[in-house]
Amino acid sequence: MHEISHRVGIKASVEKIYQALTTNEGLTQWWTNDVSGAGAVGSIIKFRFNGGGPDFKVTELEPNKTVRWQHSGNMPEAWVSTEISFQLSTDGVQTFVRFSHTNWQECSDFMAHCSTKWAVFLLSLKGAMETNQGKPFPNDISIDHS
To answer: Any residues with CB less than 8 A from the CB of 9 and at least 6 apart, and which?
Structure first.
């Protein structure tokens, strides 16, 4: 199994970042402007990019510490059986977000693309939290011309 992992420091409270990871309103500030279903453990969050996109089941919520989702559905195919987690910690000055997208079946060009896009979206989260200037899809940074 392969995984994507990133860590970013954000000058915002852990509570504010946790809300950005666990509510429709928060998620639309940094990942995509079309999100529905965020809620308690067991909820299915639908993330849409021009009408299509992945669904994730919320599998773990530890307030201000852990957010974990399990891919639900069959789109994109390479994401089937993958998990996403956000681990939050603080040093008193900033909150660190440790992001992981695990259980990839193969290391591929698509996985490399997703790794770069996750970095883009984590920087969007940072912008949303620090300056209210996130860049969720469709206003995110393009990394190719397709």
So the answer is: 94, 95, 96, 97
Structure tokens at 73: 């559905």
Per-residue pLDDT for 77 more than 90?
A: no
Structure-token pair, residue 135: 């860049």
Give the pLDDT of residue 146. 64
Residue 27: its pLDDT value, please? Answer: 98
Q: In what order do the strands lie in the sheet with 44-47?
A: 2-10, 95-104, 83-90, 66-72, 55-62, 44-47, 35-36
Question: For all residues of the chain together, what is the average pLDDT?
Answer: 95
**Distance between start and end Cα atoms, the chain:** 28
Neighbouring C-beta atoms of residue 72, cutoff 10 Å: 16
For the domain with range 2-131, which CATH number is right: 3.40.50.300, 2.40.50.140, 3.30.530.20, 3.40.50.1100?
3.30.530.20
Element (H, E) at 87: strand 83-90
- The strand pair at 95-104 and 55-62 is best described as unpaired
- Decide: pTM greater than 0.85: yes
- The Cα 44–Cα 145 span in angstroms is 31
